[in-house]
Specification:
The chain is α/β, with parallel strands linked by helices. It has two domains: about 230 residues, 3-Layer(aba) Sandwich (Rossmann fold), CATH 3.40.50; about 180 residues, Glycogen Phosphorylase B (Rossmann fold, 3-Layer(aba) Sandwich), CATH 3.40.50.2000. It has 16 helices and 14 strands. The longest helix has 20 residues.
Length: about 425
């Protein structure tokens, strides 16, 4: 069997969907099938081309397991401005679609590409060539753009985007969604039948993030053992809600020494540095760039991990950092809407607390309240998170489900569609 995986992020990029795409490719290859990965030149998370790479229209390579990797030209998006993101989306969609159109015919395409445009171009080629395809949805669009105020709910562009997305998923063999809440949205707004939906959460390698002594990182940064340490680790972009959280911290007034560590980079990092200079009662430490090998050490420095989201963004995306947080064995404060997937996961796992992201006074009060909790309670919540993540958000739990969907008789499906 021949499989093609299309994903704009792929190792060496340290992104969760890059790692999961590689694990899928490696598992298919280990089962003695031919695998081609069509991806972009590595540039995430900062939107800058990695050293040692030169962008071309196409570049082929083969990894040590025999997976064929084709890197395609795309524009870069070092900022989260809608135009740069759109150009990145369209350019990768065009080059990956062209590559798929003129490559040897695969038996199935698995697409975890940028939403709507890039994914739509892949779906179009698949329909032209009568190739069964499976779509993985990480974030829901155009809803995310509506929440960010970049589209109007009654605008013609919004209606067109909804129509395109419905067309994409209606033709897919399966649509893999990362939460039950996503599945409910797709059933209601895309009229997607239940038998075309598969819910499989994202996952990470449990060995990548392990609990470590808090003192390891605290000693490096000369943090007093008696200080209450908040940690944010991940992309510092618009959807992260970090600028709003820092503005909230300006209202904290407490005799207790509180430290916030911000680990990561992104389009809003400079804005966060600027706001941090205006905060008087919380010491803010930036750890950027954040190397992958520092993940466990940095997260484990926390008394409390902070997971902010921007407005209603939490209803249409699930931050992958939640899994890393849980595996680190530290409790989590989710600044997220109570009916979001993130909130329900935190509550189900009993690994932290949830509060509305717009409730600034409530956020301040909750942080101060948690800072007074007994250490045993914090440790218990953290341990609950790691146990839950090990059971639900690892390759052992999730990868077989994706492989099962991908390997379900693609030839039969093609035969039915050709009738």
């Amino acid at each position: 069997m021949k499989y093609t995986i299309i994903c704009p992020v792929y190792p060496p990029e340290p992104v969760v969907s890059a790692a999961t795409s590689r694990q899928i490719a490696e598992k298919i290859r280990a089962d003695h099938h031919d695998v081609t990965v069509i991806t972009a030149f590595p540039n995430r998370p900062e939107g800058k081309l990695y050293a040692g790479y030169t962008r071309k229209l196409f570049q082929k390579e083969t990894d040590k397991s025999g997976i064929q990797i084709v890197r395609c030209f795309s524009t870069l998006a070092p900022s989260s401005e809608i135009l740069s993101r759109l150009l990145e989306n369209l350019s990768f969609g065009f080059t990956s679609g062209i590559r798929l159109l003129f490559s040897s015919q695969p038996d199935l395409v698995y697409s975890n590409s940028w939403p709507i445009f890039a994914t739509g171009l892949v779906a179009l080629v698949c329909k032209i060539r009568r190739i069964p395809y499976v779509i993985s949805v990480q974030d829901i669009y155009p809803e995310s753009l509506l929440i960010q105020g970049r589209l109007k709910s009654d605008g013609i562009i919004t209606k067109i985007l909804y129509a395109i997305d419905r067309w994409i998923v209606s033709g897919s063999k399966k649509t893999i969604l990362i939460s039950d809440e996503f599945a409910e949205i797709y059933a209601a707004s895309r009229k997607l039948p239940a038998n075309q939906v598969m819910v499989v959460p994202n996952w990470i390698d449990e060995n990548k993030v392990t609990p470590e002594p808090a003192a390891l990182y605290r000693n490096e940064r000369h943090i007093d053992p008696n200080q209450f340490v908040l940690v944010y680790g991940g992309n510092v972009g618009v959807a992260s809600g970090m600028t709003e959280f820092l503005l909230t911290l300006k209202h904290i007034s407490t005799p207790q020494a509180i430290v916030l560590i911000i680990a990561g980079s992104g389009s809003q990092l400079d804005a966060c540095r600027k706001i941090a200079k205006e905060i008087r009662n919380v010491e803010v430490i930036f750890h950027s760039p954040w190397e992958e090998e520092d993940t466990s050490k940095v997260l484990s420095a926390a008394d409390l991990l902070i997971l902010p989201t921007h407005g209603q963004q939490s209803l249409f995306s699930v931050p992958s950092k939640l899994i890393a947080y849980m595996l680190s064995g530290r409790p989590i404060l989710g600044l997220t809407l109570p009916n979001s997937s993130t909130a329900k996961t935190i509550e189900k796992a009993a690994c932290g607390w949830v509060i509305d992201p717009d409730n600034r006074n409530g956020i301040v009060e909750k942080i101060l309240e948690i800072s007074e909790y007994e250490k045993d309670l914090l440790e218990k919540r953290g341990a609950n998170g790691r146990i839950f993540a090990m059971q639900n958000f690892t390759a052992k739990a999730c990868l077989p489900e994706v492989i099962r969907v991908i390997s379900q008789n693609p030839n039969k499906l093609r035969h039915r569609k050709n009738k």
